[in-house]
Amino acid sequence: xxxxxxxxxxxxxxxxxxxxxxxxxxxxxxxxxxxxxxxxxxxxxxxxxxxxxxxxxxxxxxxxxxxxxxxxxxxxxxxxxxxxxxxxxxxxxxxxxxxxxxxxxxxxxxxxxxxxxxxxxxxxxxxxxxxxxxxxxxxxxxxxxxxxxxxxxxxxxxxxxxxxxxxxxxxxxxxxxxxxxxxxxxxxxxxxxxxxxxxxxxxxxxxxxxxxxxxxxxxxxxxxxxxxxxxxxxxxxxxxxxxxxxxxxxxxxxxxxxxxxxxxxxxxxxxxxxxxxxxxxxxxxxxxxxxxxxxxxxxxxxxxxxxxx
Length: 309
Description:
Strand order of the largest sheet: 1-4-3-2
Oligomer: single chain
Number of helices: 7
Order of helices and strands: HHEHEEHHEHH
Shape: rod-shaped
Helix content: 55-70%
Number of strands: 4
Radius of gyration: 42 Å
Distance between the termini: 68 Å
């Protein structure tokens, strides 16, 4: 490795700025990575919560508008369109046809569902039980590992708030015969009013969140790198023009003076420290010139005195 003492002034400044550049890029990269990851999560969470509110609206519409109209037919034929969770699931699948929502997945994870498709897995059971024990807030989010890979999820509790829901879930005797015929008497019963029976879960592959943050990070780091590079070039240009070049000219002038040309002047083009140095060198040159003149006069006088004697 080249020792610092063998490097020129411009090279030393370039080395220093490069070290600062690398440290700045590394530090800002770490900070921006965290910030952008949080921003990407917030963006996905906002989209997921909007979808969840939409699903709640669909559930409410199904319970208050669709179910009363179709319930008389349930004894003869089971109509899944009367089930809020079914309507919400179907509407969500329609939304997933849009590229903006194709990566999102929706599930009403229930501890004791009528349709086993909605059965909560082990992780979702913990979520529901936490909601039931009130050890969790009304909304939780985070990352989890699934057989398909890591996903980012947002969950809210499903609570029985309407008496109409208990018509199908209080007991097999109260449920429509067509529903019992399709799903049996083993699942989806003994629910009670205000009970938390499950959780609405919207998830998206973690890679979607991370890729969004990564793209933003790459763009931000490219901007930072460009700015740092421009700053280094600007500082090097300024240093070369206002420090290195004047010092080189002064060095060349000092070399000329040292060879006996005391009429050579050190160029002073600025009033800064470099200009003051040039001014000091000029005063030193003038002092040297005056000293040399006195020395020449002294020598001339000595030669004159020797000739007279």
